[in-house]
Amino acid sequence: MNLPNKLTIFRILLIPVIMLVYSIRPLRENYILWYNLSQANFIILLLIFIGALTDFLDGYIARRDNIVTNFGKFLDPIADKLLTFTGFIILMEQNANNQVISGGTASTLITWWMVLIIFAREIMVTGIRLLAIEQGRVIAASPYGKFKTTLQFITIIFILAGGAVMVVEGKLYNINIVYEVIAKILIIAMLAITIFSGYDYLAKNKDVLKETNKKIKTKKVKQEKNKNK
Predict the structure, then answer these.
(1) Rounded to the nearest 5°, which phi and psi values hold at 140?
(2) What is the spatial distance between Cα 88 and Cα 111, in angstroms, rounded to a whole number?
(3) 211 pLDDT band (50/70/90 cuts)?
(4) 88-112 pLDDT tens trace
(5) CA–CA dist 214, 181 (Å, integer)
(6) Helix (H) or strand (E) holding 35
(7) Residue among 89, 211, 205 nearest 145 (CA)
(8) Which of 121, 177, 195, 210 has its CA 20 to 30 A from that of 77?
(9) How many angstroms separate the most distant Cα atoms in the chain?
(10) What b/e readout covers 170-194, taking b as 16+ CB neighbours within 10 angstroms?
């Protein structure tokens, strides 16, 4: 197995480590460096940063050494999706906890409908990829898709750095207003490119869907002929 594919698999293996870190309650309840940056979030943002770095490195090495493989084209975007999903689900869960802790007064950043938009886009793209594979084709990630993934990584890391409400010795520390504004700008930009890249992907690969429909119709015609024999 070549180095880029090893880096891709390494990125997937980071996910259970992230889940393990987040499951340790004391790490979620104690802060590091500043309020609203829990020890768990600090470790997780470092792991996600490492994952984002390997995403850049595996693509760079593959292109530099001309070792682009179908396995890499297929697994690389899946590894990105799994890692970003993990980050967004953690942030969504933290947002829900923040509302409980603050009695509904905490700032709202990542919510369920945002994650649903991201999830729907990725399911659609993955579905088209699987249809293409069935037709003997492998679709590489688009530039818009790569930019989308990069912006998602940046958004996750930024919010992890200070988006959680912390209660220290009975005192509630909500997020700073400047931080909140920047976070929301990142979220809006991230959702916009997520939607646009999904549309671009669908528009450029609609022939995959047409080919699938054609095969289905051909199969039905053959079945009808067999019945009439």
Answers:
(1) -75, 160
(2) 9
(3) low
(4) 999 999 998 888 888 888 888 999 9
(5) 49
(6) strand 34-38
(7) 205
(8) 210
(9) 82
(10) eeeebbeeebbeebeebbeebbebb
Dist. CA 209–CA 229, nearest whole Å: 31
Tell me the three state secondary structure of residue 39: helix
What does DSSP assign to residue 142? P
Radius of gyration of the chain (CA): 21
State the helix-helix crossing angle for 143-160 and 39-64, rounded to 10 degrees.
Answer: 160
Is residue 177 within a helix (H) or strand (E), and if so which, with residue range? helix 177-204
Helix (H) or strand (E) segment spanning residue 223? helix 206-228
For tokens 């984002």, the residue is 52
Q: Which of 81, 89, 96 is nearest to 44 (CA)?
A: 89
Question: Three-state SS for 59?
Answer: helix
Residue 113: how many CB atoms within 10 A of its CB? 9
φ/ψ (deg, to 5) at 114: -65, -45
